[in-house]
């Protein structure tokens, strides 16, 4: 188990591009949800096939272009649906109509499958493992659930799961103390109802909906309303995750039954973390811990000691190099990540010279969940974030057609040893000034090293330069 596994861009499409390419966003070109990963940059399957592996991806793909560098694919269109999903299989000739945004209907090649997506995707992976792969070759299977993407629809068999349980509520759901800055709240809290989607009533547009009697809801205090909505939100989420857990067991049971489990590297991860009410935020995108962190578990008893854990800092750009290393290959020069096979093989111990910090960048300024654009650096103890508050596309508009407005630029700094829940922004505390200057220098160096200096975006460079020494 990796206790310090992080994403470098906490949103689906860019994070998946980081994983597949072993590159940071400005290098692989996928900055946000709307930019496709070029076919020729589907590097992981390309490199694995060179090593003699048969490759497959089943379930959510979300990188726009067909994954044609895989030997086999059966993927959801876009996000796909939770129930009775349509999937497109390699060689598919059947036409099917699917709804798109704004009521538009699109005809694609695909087939509808009956049931919940977590069950369906697992059925398809098991079918590939049993009957469609070349069993004379080693394989790379990317098994991608849709769950638990927002919406959190679960199979009907989980409807009563946790029904009578009270889910513990984070204190910051009600009192965010000194978290944030003018970048996340506005001057004199003028943007408190605008930035960051909420659980309760705070956000003017993007908040959780009360599932019940509307008249009764009007009589609730803000705290009563928030608690009621939170309990519903978390139970839906956990029911959805329960379906993921149970279906992973189906895959592991099959590998164990066929005698392949101990000879298979099994990696469990996601494309980012998720805010579940902390700071009264939902969704991901933030550089705050719950969003920045990724689950990362690896099972391979031939190399890894069961029950071992590591404090080593890794991020999703390192995943492809590590997989290639485990398969007997080397990290290509074009990949920016590093293999952490040594950490796996040595009970979590870091090799000499291993990274002591990780870089992060969120690009989609004030989109969907109303998060300002920002970047930063995180070490094992400290976190420094710069909210520059401007979209990389100067002509970008909001959903209502108005130009995206610039939000205030500001720095945030957290001492995670003394403040693990990030409730006290210490950027202005003189006690930390030397540490902050050191982190700024390291952040500047990483931006240069990882090709993240915004050469194509001089308007961003201007904001960053103006506020660097604030």
Structure description:
There is one protein chain. The protein has helices spanning 12-21, 25-28, 43-50, 117-132, 182-185, 214-218, 222-257, 289-292, 319-326, 341-345, 433-449, 458-467; strands spanning 2-6, 54-59, 72-75, 86-89, 95-99, 105-109, 111-112, 139-144, 266-269, 275-276, 282-283, 296-299, 310-315, 357-362, 374-379, 382-387, 410-415. By secondary structure, it is α+β, with helices and mostly antiparallel strands. Strands 7-4-3-2-8 form a 5-stranded mixed β-sheet, with helices on both faces. It has a 4-stranded antiparallel β-sheet with strand order 14-15-16-17. A two-stranded parallel sheet has the order 1-13. α4 (117-132) runs parallel beside α7 (222-257). The chain starts with a strand and ends with a helix.
SSE order and pairing:
Layout lengths: L1 E5 L5 H10 L3 H4 L14 H8 L3 E6 L12 E4 L10 E4 L5 E5 L5 E5 L1 E2 L4 H16 L6 E6 L37 H4 L28 H5 L3 H36 L8 E4 L5 E2 L5 E2 L5 H4 L3 E4 L10 E6 L3 H8 L14 H5 L11 E6 L11 E6 L2 E6 L22 E6 L17 H17 L8 H10 L3
Parallel strand pairs: 1-13, 2-3, 2-8
Antiparallel strand pairs: 3-4, 4-7, 5-6, 9-12, 10-11, 14-15, 15-16, 16-17
Mean pLDDT: 96
- Return the structural class: alpha+beta
Ranges where pLDDT stays below 50 over 5 or more residues in a row are: none
Q: How much of the sequence is in beta strands?
A: 15-25%
Largest sheet: 5 strands, mixed
Record field, number of beta strands: 17
| Cα distance spanning the termini | 38 Å
Instruction: Please give the order of strands in the largest beta sheet.
Output: 7-4-3-2-8
SSE arrangement, N to C:
EHHHEEEEEEHEHHHEEEHEEHHEEEEHH
Shape: globular
Number of helices: 12
Percent in helix: 25-40%
Question: What Rg do the Cα atoms give?
Answer: 22 Å
